[in-house]
Write a structure and sequence with these properties.
Layout (H helix, E strand, L loop, with lengths): L3 E6 L3 H12 L4 E4 L6 H5 L2 H19 L14 H15 L5 H6 L3 E3 L3 E5 L2 E4 L2 E10 L3 E3 L15 H4 L8 E5 L3 H12 L3 E5 L10 H13 L3 E3 L4 E5 L3 E4 L4 E3 L2 E4 L3 E3 L13 E2 L2 E4 L11 E3 L4 E3 L8 H16 L12 E4 L4 E6 L2 H6 L5 E6 L4 H6 L5 E6 L5 E8 L2 H13 L4 H5 L10 H15 L2 H12 L3
Parallel strand pairs: 1-2, 1-6, 2-3, 6-18, 8-9, 8-14, 9-10, 17-19
Antiparallel strand pairs: 4-5, 5-6, 7-15, 11-12, 12-13, 16-17, 20-21, 21-24, 22-23, 23-24
Helix pairs in contact: 1-9, 3-4, 3-7
Length: 472
């Protein structure tokens, strides 16, 4: 008999979630983590970045108060207090992800590096462990580009950024994805000089029109944006040497150019587990294509060669797939058609499903429905009218994608995730009753534009006139 029913490698979102379910169901579970419980999300990602953004948004709100007739002095940023808030948020959430909690559920927790030594056999902390099934949820880390001189100068990644004890005077950021733009805005709002360099456009995975709203916000906050700009080398300073010969020097450098899966230490070959640069190759149910008792979840999974989705909620989603398939032997497979994602700038940029560019690239014949925040009563009342809702629908009105740029967009995208996942139409969402006045009305108003042309067409007008002449 194996030592455990289930071995889980990695105590991030995916690993903790599947461990919780399996332990609560009474399985013999071992959870192995080489670093900190909670993984990147708790310690170096979602939680600290959103805590820092909260401080930054508070400073920005104070600066904007004048538009409402409230005049405040320039905010005084106490960097030590901001840092204490960030680490306090981590400490407050940590008990939910702690060793003690998972041991209390019945799981064994081993704080060591895990590696395969044979199919179904792991080595961790000097012990050999056997398990009927193994879930690899070892996560990912910051990818460091192969730039001449980069490794010869001190640089930050998301894993070290929140340990800074002093406020950066001039932060250089390589990369304009979610981490890059969020940290650019946060540090600019907190009084740092910020220069962001991106070889393409910022937020390149997101809808270009919605990303334009984000661009305007960053520029208004004083971020120096260098888009479509390539870096040729890095020199001490740190100094970025651009391909056009320009040189930009700062006090700190943040590298935010993507992520790479944590594969190297696992010794996957010993268990016959196939993997590539994007992670462990799995089927749509997250089972390894080459080792039937092994599954992968979270950032390290590459299902059906479509690549990972570096999002914490994807790890939790994967855990649900694994619970149904692996524990209950029910059919379950991933479906990213309605997967939401949010860039937590101010305004936020939230998307679910396909962007306009993705739909057209896939050969879809689509209609685009829009409604601006400038025509939303709540936005007008609060003096925050930059942004819009944008829907991608088929000619018959089925929702393929939804995007929102505006304050609290991440809180509004959930309804659209459900609508896309359930294959609802724009007309169905136009019938949704939402409270007035709220920004959520912009999505409903955008959906309603699908039928407006038909509603006010000559034939409809004629029909209404005829009906109006009939006795009531």
């Amino acid at each position: 008999m194996a030592d455990f029913d289930l071995a889980v490698i990695g105590a991030g979102s995916a690993g903790l979630s599947i461990t919780y379910v399996a332990a609560r169901l009474g399985l013999r579970v071992v959870l192995i983590e080489r670093e900190r419980m909670g993984g990147d999300c708790l310690n170096t990602g979602c939680v600290p970045s959103k805590a820092l953004l909260a401080a930054a948004h508070a400073a920005s709100a104070a600066r904007r108060a004048g538009r409402l007739g409230i005049r405040l002095p320039e905010p005084e940023v106490d960097w030590a207090a901001v840092r204490a808030h960030v680490h306090g948020a981590i400490a407050a959430i940590a008990p939910q992800d702690s060793e003690e909690r998972f041991r209390s559920l019945g799981a064994e927790v081993i704080r060591a590096e895990a590696r395969f030594v044979a199919p179904g056999t792991l080595e961790a902390g000097g012990r050999h462990l056997t398990a009927h099934r193994v879930v690899v949820a070892a996560g990912s880390r910051a990818a460091v580009p192969d730039l001449p001189g980069l490794r010869d100068v001190p640089f930050l990644t998301h894993a070290t950024l929140f340990d800074l004890k002093e406020k950066p005077e001039h932060l250089l950021i390589l990369g304009g994805g979610a981490i890059g733009v969020e940290m650019a805005q946060a540090h600019a709002a907190l009084g740092c000089r910020v220069t962001l360099v991106e070889h393409g456009r910022i937020a390149k995975r997101e809808d270009a029109e919605l990303a334009g709203v984000l661009r305007g916000a960053l520029l208004a906050d004083g971020v120096a944006l260098l888009e479509n700009t390539s870096v040729a080398a890095v020199e001490p300073g740190p100094t970025l040497v651009l391909e056009d010969g320009r040189r930009i020097s700062g006090t700190h450098l943040l590298v935010a150019t993507g992520r790479t899966p944590n594969l190297e230490a696992l010794n996957l070959e010993a268990a016959g587990i196939r993997a590539g640069p994007r992670g462990i190759a799995t089927d749509a149910g997250l089972r390894s294509l080459s080792a039937r008792r092994v599954y992968a979840a979270g950032d390290i999974a590459d299902p059906q060669n479509i690549g990972p989705r570096y999002l914490t909620h994807v790890g939790s989603y994967h855990a649900g797939i694994l619970a149904r398939r692996m524990l209950f032997r029910l059919p379950a497979r991933i479906d990213y058609a309605a997967l939401p994602r949010v860039t937590y700038t101010d305004p936020e940029l939230a998307q679910a499903g396909m962007t306009e560019e993705e739909a057209r690239a896939a050969g879809q014949d689509v209609r685009i429905l829009r409604w601006p925040l400038a025509e939303n009563d709540r936005a007008i009342a609060e003096g925050r009218t930059d942004g819009l809702a944008k829907l991608v629908v088929t000619p018959r009105g089925r929702l393929l994608g939804a995007g929102i740029a505006g304050p609290h967009a991440g809180e509004m995208i959930g309804a659209w995730t459900l609508a896309i996942g359930r294959k609802l139409s724009a007309d169905a969402m136009a019938g949704l009753v939402v409270p007035y006045p709220t920004r959520s009305e912009i999505g409903k108003r955008a959906a309603a534009t699908f039928s407006l042309d038909r509603l006010f067409a000559p034939r409809t007008r004629w029909l209404v006139r005829m009906l109006g002449r009939l006795p009531g």
